[in-house]
Amino acid sequence: MKIFTAAQIHELDNYTIEHEPVKSIDLMERAAKALTRAIMDEWTDRTPVVVFAGPGNNGGDALAVARMLAENHYQVSVYLFNIHDKLSEDCAANKERLVYAKKVSHFTEITLNFDPPELTPETLVVDGLFGSGINKPLSGGFASLVRYINQSPAKVVSIDMPSGLMCEDNTYNVRQNIIRADLTLTLQQKKLSMMLTDCQQYLGRLRVLDIRLSPDYIRDTEVSCRIQEETDLIPCVRHRGDFVHKGTMGHALIIAGSYGMSGAAILATRACLRSGAGKVTVHTPKRNYGIMQVAVPEAVLQMDREETYFSDSVESQDYDALAIGPGLGQSENSAIALIGQIRRTQCPIVVDADGLNMLANHQAWMQQLPLGIIMTPHPKEFDRLVGVTSSSDYERLTKARQLAEHLQGYVLLKGHYSALCKPDGHIVFNSTGNSGMATAGSGDVLTGIIAGLLARGYDQATACQLGMYLHGLAGDLAVRDLGKESLIASDIINYLPKAFLRLED
Ligand SMILES: NC(=O)C1=CN([C@@H]2O[C@H](COP(=O)(O)OP(=O)(O)OC[C@H]3O[C@@H](n4cnc5c(N)ncnc54)[C@H](OP(=O)(O)O)[C@@H]3O)[C@@H](O)[C@H]2O)[C@@H](O)CC1
Ligand SMILES: Nc1ncnc2c1ncn2[C@@H]1O[C@H](COP(=O)(O)OP(=O)(O)O)[C@@H](O)[C@H]1O
Ligand SMILES: [K+]
To answer: What whole-number distance in Å separates Cα of residue 169 and Cα of residue 392?
Structure first.
């Protein structure tokens, strides 16, 4: 799914009106029908409904929904906010239709003072104050109303956007003046802010309603952000020829583990093996020899000369991919070995965990990273890497995009919707995965998967996209059998075969 900017959403609206062609009032009617159907799916006609409509087209949608719910025997009270005596054309038209239909039990147009109605736990609030046309944080009477709704026990369904939430950047928004919906019914496409962790509290459950906006515009318009889906990835999956052998299926080198953190090396190595690499070599401190041999008999071991930490870079010309960082520790010796390793490695590299932390501790090294490098930070690791804590997830995403462009590499910012920032400034959000994966070691598994895919011959962008998709899908498949609470990182590895099977079938 493409993610359009607020300006593009407006263009899409106009393009549809012009090219379908359809009158804008009829398009609003179509949207309102879809919204009404979705509300009726969830709440019976015994639910008292209070509709708050703003002066723009979001308010127009809300007024049309109010009329349709009333026609379907709901008790509906409507408050239209027209404090500047200026309604959008379609909002005004829907006001007329509503008044003419005489179906709603109560209609007030607020031009000055407003006494809010009582909102009980049984009430359903339809929030149609502002949608994608919002251009500044809410203040004054609107802010008070939002706070009144938020502190009430009523259930809230937001039309298109929770009112007050911006489509993209909410860094400087006034957070208490944004509606906290129980259900958001967004029209046609998800908006960028809906992919960000710090905006989830406003959305509640999110449903996307197809209102048949121009498929031509949707297909032909360039965007910089998209959400990847299974259909995008299936064509990328490589199939094995019958006559291949382990020597042609790629050789990955994993440099991971230190004293007390052999588990990270084990998880990354197992995940790498399960991702199709022909051979996997693990370079790890001597002390890990016994445990690695037992835990991952399929891997070749290469012992560091040190007992407990990574101390020196190794020859890498025989490898097709390098993963470095999981459980590596952050000693100064290891840091020097890390940068030495990165400098002498010719194949694609993925850096994770302590590898990233050590780069963060040596900012000058950031300039020495090879083109095409892949970094897989979680938000804290990312903040350390760029040296500042971001005050919003939008800001962090923007910095990740800038870093990917600056390094001409790949920054895979992990989260519920992991975001891959590419060297050309494009961002791909992942759509698989679940909160059961919020457990130690899940990230090591992702690193191993990406390394395996790189070794197998996928280019960096595909390895990252397919890797994060398979990682999340394996987690989703595991959760079906095991539940979220008990899921551990090893389960993700155990369900990787099923995830591959699903994409291959
Ligand atoms: N996209 C589509 O394809 C379709 C879209 N549809 C619907 O249209 C919605 C977008 O409608 P929209 O463009 O009229 O904007 P909307 O959100 O109603 O707000 C604009 C009004 O709010 C005002 N205003 C802004 N910020 C403010 C603030 N902080 N505080 C106070 N006022 C503020 C602004 O005034 P201004 O500042 O510009 O004078 C203007 O009056 C969209 O979300 C969806 O529901 C569907 O009907 C059909 C298909
Ligand atoms: N709530 C969640 N929803 C979806 N994916 C999640 C969630 N929590 C964690 N994950 C995934 O699990 C992995 C966690 O990585 P990370 O924090 O580096 O873990 P660790 O350092 O313990 O290995 C990431 O790939 C992330 O996308
Ligand atoms: K709204």
So the answer is: 9
For CATH 3.40.1190.20, the residue range(s) in the chain are: 230-504
Q: Which CATH superfamily is domain 2-223 in?
A: YjeF N-terminal domain (3.40.50.10260)
Three-state DSSP state, 160: coil
* pLDDT category of residue 258 using cuts at 50, 70 and 90: very high
**CA distance readout (Å), 160 to 107, 127, 132, 211:** 22, 9, 7, 12
What pLDDT, in 10s, does the model give residues 429-448? 999 999 999 999 999 999 99
Instruction: Catalogue the E-assigned strands of 13-123.
Output: 49-53, 76-81, 106-110
Q: Provide the β-strand partners of residue 321.
A: 252
Q: Which two tokens stand for residue 369?
A: 């990273």
Of the candidates 431, 399, 405, 407, the residue with the CA atom closest to the CA atom of residue 418: 431
Residue 27: what pLDDT? 98
- Closest ligand 2 atom to residue 418 Cα is 27
Q: Is 118 exposed, middle or buried (0-12, 13-18, 19+ CB in 10 A)?
A: exposed
Angle at which helix 354-361 crosses helix 379-386, to 10 degrees, equals: 20
Pick the CATH number of 230-504 from 3.90.1700.10, 3.40.1550.10, 3.40.50.720, 3.40.1190.20: 3.40.1190.20
Taking the C-alpha atoms of residue 131 and residue 159, their distance in angstroms, rounded to an integer, is 7
Binding site, annotated residues for AMP: 414-418, 443
Cα–Cα–Cα angle for 291, 296, 298, rounded to 5 degrees? 140
For range 256-260, the mean pLDDT: 95
Distance from the alpha carbon of residue 419 to the mean position of ligand 3, in angstroms: 26
Which residue has a Cα nearest atom 47 of ligand 1?
Answer: 28
Q: In this structure, what DSSP letter does residue 247 have?
A: G
Judged against a pLDDT cut of 90, whether residue 208 lies above it is answered with yes
Ligand nearest, relative to CA of residue 181: 3
Whether residue 276 is predicted with pLDDT greater than 90 in this model: the reply is yes
- Distance of CA 21 from the midpoint of ligand 2 (Å): 46
Phi/psi of residue 470, nearest 5 degrees:
-65, -40
353 lines ligand 2 (CB under 6 A): yes
Q: For the stretch 235-265, what's the b/e string if a residue is b when 16 or more beta carbons lie within 10 angstroms of its beta carbon?
A: ebeeeeeeeeeeeebbbbbbbbbbeebbbbb
Q: What ipTM was assigned to the predicted interfaces of this complex?
A: 0.96
Distance 438 CA to ligand 2 centre (A): 5
| Residues in CB range of 486: below 8 A, 6 or more apart | none
